[in-house]
What does this fold into?
Amino acid sequence: MRPNPPLDHLLDAMTLEEQASLLAGADFWTTVAVPRLGVPAIKLSDGPNGARGAVFKDGPRTACFPAGIALAASWSPALVEQAGAALGREARLKGARVLLAPTVNLQRTVYNGRNFECFSEDPWLASELAVACVRGVQSAGVAATIKHFVGNESEYQRMSISSDIPERALRELYLLPFERAVKEAGVMAVMTGYNRVGGVFMADHRRLVHEVLRGEWGFDGLVMSDWMATLDTVQGVLAGCDLEMPGPTRVRGALLVAAVQEGRLPAAAVRACAARVLRLAERLGSFADPVIPAERADDLPEHRALIRRLGAEGCVLLKNEAAVLPLAPRPGQTVALIGRAATVAQIMGGGSANVNAHYRVAPADALREACPGVAFSQHAGADIHRWTPVLAQPMTVEIFAGSDFAGPAFATQTLPNSEVQWIGTMPPGLVEGQVFSARTTLRFVADADGEHAFSLISAGLARATLNGEPVLDAWTNWRRGDTYFTFGCDEVVHRRHLRAGEVVELNLEFCNTPPGGGGPPPAFAVLRVGAARVLGEADIAAAVEAARAADVALVFAGLNAEWDNEGLDRPGMTLPHRQDELIARVAAANSRTVVVLQSGSPLLLPWLEDVSAVLQAWYPGQECGHAIADVLLGAADPGGRLPQTWPARIEDTVAFGDPAQYPGVDGHVAYGEGLLIGYRHHEARGIAPRFAFGHGLSYTSFAHEALVLSRSRLRPGEALQATLTVRNTGTRTGSEVVQLYVHAVEPALPRPPQELKAFAKLSLAPGQTQAVSLALGMRAFAAFDEARCAWVAAPGRYEIRVGASSADIRQRATLVLTDEWMERVGA
Ligand code: BGC
It folds into this structure.
């Protein structure tokens, strides 16, 4: 155990080159060590729903937790803190001391590809959960990295788009989760977004990083850029963006030293960034314990149990007509399980949040396990994918040095399915920057007659023959598309009719040379081969017949990690392929039709009136099937409430019909709606949503009674408590989320009609009553006054509204703020 050297002495002892070396990663996931002075390297890991470790795909297994939106749907800071602590522990199993989580950008539109990763459209809910998550992660001795600072609300032109956000919206909405995580949870690290704000890249944003984050809020932790988002040698350091990730450096290192030597950058700026890298190491105890342990894949029973519980606590019961749920199928009854997601567990979204889960419990398996004697039939019905599914059979790839498959293969790699990703890793025996080619052969056996799709996506060049005939070309005209963080091409598809039992052979060639041949090969190399039968009319018809013959039809519908995905936005809110038709036809065939939705974002539900019940289960992690079965069968109450409004029509959504507001024009996306996102938008414009923010049914019912405010006249600086009692008026134990909204009756500045400012989740037995006390500080009444650069609560009347959703206000009380309250920000 080495003692921690005082950081100033350490910095004094470092050469400029050594200090500069600390300002970029050593590789994809670690910082640079300076062994001469005992400075340790620190390992980082994604991400928000599991600690992946250093291998992007198929690395050591890890626990997969619910996606951000699913955690948020629990409305339980206490549980999210537990999830954070478990994620911190998982990070340590991977040798990491920095976890790249949580993601706290707001759900501004319904299109964002990363909607699933974010907590909420509401800044108070998002910030409460951010604080809880950070506290949890950091309780495990791991630095949380709150991301992506700030204005990263869509994936369109994600490496360059400028989010042009009015100052009030920035302060009141988008910055709040970051502000509270700094001030209330002491978050140790912040990741800047890829985007620009007001035309300036976030990694270079001196006003927001140096002045607001560090200056106003007093953040003294580490700021890192998103991966490959440090583009300028000098500006980022001047802004106080300490760490360029990943490494090895692209724009720092020797370039930084030269900038100092040429007088373009003060040496003190480099030293300040280096000091913050060292301080992080010191805070984590890494000087004393510098060894980065090998990755472990421990499958912890307590994490299994927590994930199962979190999954059920996040399930939102949207509709439950005639109490069709919970189901109680008796032995001898039949249940038709319909939809791909019944058998293929949809556990997480796509992109850097993706992990190699220990296991994935499919709903069909969990239901069978829980209901012995019940007959379950199973029908896929309709497709859900964005890209042709990969082949679930091992793929062995031969690797050749150089671009032309010359000589004997020098390595082979066997993957569990027909997708290989070399992201931050290289094939065995190669180092980053080396050119290689790869070859593989796949056999595909058609299991039914029909049209089949074969497809290629590649980051790098790829082509394929089918039974010797060239059919797929992502080589000659390879063009960068939207896949794989925008490093892959768009999918190339070949379709052909096959008969059941027919065997075809696909021969694939891949090369990681950059398109056009110039420059070094990119750090992202991917080959993805799709091969599947295209589901059609016969599949729907079979599902409908099974539904007709069953006592109850359970349809699993929704999206998957290709739609709810990093790097590209969703095209809209419609269920892909023929899923809407499938549900409508099943509902027509069976009056007891229950739909389980899985998505990380709102969907249109044109068949809503025709089905008995709808449960939104999101992406609940590796215990997916168990969590869903627990709720469907009533072992758990559906604990979730919507953290995002579900609009009835795409036309009703924020930014609809104005390309300047979404997706953006000429590199800029204007947040022209200002404060009016989510329920604020719906309520200000009088547009009824399909399901309101905060909505979600329990299997029991609750009464909210006797709302009392601790004061009816509030003087600036005084605390306010709103208390009420909640009674379980039903016959089952269940959970209720009490939500408090503030409405400014005579606002000095224009305000949204109401804003969530407090909430509490409780679980009550039948007949049980509980007192709830919700505290409000002065900021709950304040708006950001740009002219005065201050938070200002105007004197006057405020209505406190308490209810079970933003549209289900049960009680109101009014208070008067006697005088103005003001808190200046900045100098
Ligand atoms: C994502 C980050 C992530 C990083 C490392 C980026 O593409 O935006 O959220 O932490 O990659 O995987």
